[in-house]
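Researcher: Please translate sequence to structure tokens.
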Amino acid sequence: MSAPLEDCGGLTREYSEILLIWNKDPVRVGRVKKIVLVDPPYSFWSAEKNYLRPFIGNLPSLGLLSLAAVLRERGYEVIIVESASLGLSLAQTLENILRENPCYLGLSCTTASVENAATIARAVKEKNSEILTFVGGPHITALPEETFCRYPDFDYGVVGEGEMAFLDLLEVVGENGKIKSVESAVFREGEKVLVNPRRSFIDPLDRLPFPAYDLLPLFPARYRPPFLNYLKGPSASLSSSRGCPQACTFCDRSVFGARYRYFSEDYIFELISHLCRKYSIQHLVFADDQFAASKARLIRLCEKMAAGNLKIRWNCDARVDSVDPELLKLMKRAGCWMISFGIESGSQKMLDDLHKGFDLEQAERAVRWTKKAGLRAKGLFMIGYPGETEETLHQTLSLLLRLPLDEMNLSILTPYPGTEIYRRAKSSNEFLEDWSRMNAMNCLLLPPALSSAGTLEKEYARIIREFYMRPGVTFSYLGLLIRSPENGARLAAGLWQALLNLIKPRHKG
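Model: Translation complete:
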């Protein structure tokens, strides 16, 4: 059973707003082929936290943009509601959906948003039970049966890569056909939840149309990378590949799989050129899991971008063992501005346990090569692994202070469904499986060697403080602020909103 509406996702404060929306004129049914696609707000988010958006960024869901483009090509009328990126409340999200009077509602679900997705689906059903609700994304792919048993207002689901599978499902549902014939479909048969075999991956990816950026509300003005991760906008994100050939135990690869597939360099160049022409984009964020998985392909793409003289900066993620000095110089010529490396830990034992497949010497070398090539280097780190100890935490801090990183991102291990660590954690009494708190900020699986979650949180704060309070890092950030008035304005806006939150009166009850 799903929880009562007023108990889901901290909705109590918004319950009266939703009731007002419900009391509007009834939804008119019969607008065939109209679909609203929603990226639901995160269960741990609230309007009071919106002042943080300048610092963490708010880029849109690329999965929804691709899905919308494919649906539109097939003749569907598509509306996108970017609740997670724009900081919309549940009440605002519901109002946006109902205003469109859709036949179909598609919800993209991560573990951190699935509870709010269920709340939205139930609220829509209360308004009009004939609206069919569809869900897809990493959480549904990892736990389809359990999710559908918990949330009865999801009518259908799609596991894995969604574009073609969702089209197949819509065609069968629209014709009252047999769902059992649709690959990747999740559906109910009486009390049972059934999951069909997976559909083959899309290959080649160039078959897909460009993402439907034009369907985003207020694009590109409202969508930006994290604070100081770029110099000047407008900005956009895109994915040039799918799948990751690595086998890190904390990463879920269930949607796009382990086989690395990529768009051709011609496709990506044309997409970037389109974004520059139509939206005056000046900074790109490549959202690939592993942008440099194929060196030969990356060289071709960078050579094409450099020759095309696009005058655009971009960021990407890469493994430390996938770069070398010559490749980094080419990436610089092609417009690369910053590379984020998933280093994760300063303990070699931790890296081996996580199946990272590289050593600390390779990590140090890659960061120093990156800096020598004139690029910014960002380190991605995580603490709280099952084997974490006070000594491994110290080793991580030591490595962070030793490396010439411009920036770092630190998270707390979350055993996300679909990962190897999640499968192991299920047998542990220490694992608190609370989907609403799975956000890389909460300790849900306490390492046996640490005394309490508070110990881990204290070390988290210490690592952040000691890295960022060094004079070199501080002066680097001040220099970026001087060079980037846009980031300066974002900082001022965030601080102003934080101040308003502090001084505004608190309502009791």
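Researcher: Any highlights?
Model: The chain has two domains: 5-195, 225-469.
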